[in-house]
Design brief:
Blueprint lengths: L9 E11 L2 E12 L4 E12 L10 E6 L9 E8 L14 H28 L2 H9 L4 H39 L3 H10 L3
Parallel strand pairs: 3-5
Antiparallel strand pairs: 1-2, 1-4, 2-3, 4-5
Length: 195
Amino acid sequence: MPFLKNPSSLCGVVVSSGRMMKAVKVRVARQTYNSFIKKHFRTYESHLVSDPTSSLRTGDVVRILPHWRTSRHISHVVSEILAPFGVPIDERPMIMSEEERVAKRAEKRAAKEGRRARRRMEGSEGDRKGRNDGEDEGLGAGAIDERARGNQARARRMEAKGRENEAEAEGVQAELDEKGVGVDDVRRRLEGVKI
């Protein structure tokens, strides 16, 4: 077995691959000491590992590096394949080196910062032209404006319906007043009737 290059790196076997995009599950063997029996026993830990090029297959023995957080549950990354299982390494996509991973992360971060800066600029301008420019870049500001206009129209219709209902209620109240029947009379009649 080759010696570990990085003391914090771990060696393990891929137990699940192809079920998640760019991620695999790796089982790492450990030894735990049972103080009652005074003996070491083999136990296993499973780690979700980032595989950016999707080059790992179930059964591969791999070296993984910790402290490479890519999502909530994935905090390890593949550094190399020690023993391939099945398909030879030459026929698979190459595993990214550390420099490539760092460069890709920096590129994604720069793109995110650019999008964030554009959104802040559009928000500070506040004019209609700035918001409509975002549609060409795929930000979808036009869809939000369209939804807001629909909500305003729906609110106007509901206010008109509320005014109609109030006018109808006033008309019914006027008819009851003409007949001499008020709210108190209706309550007295209902109290007299046992339900």
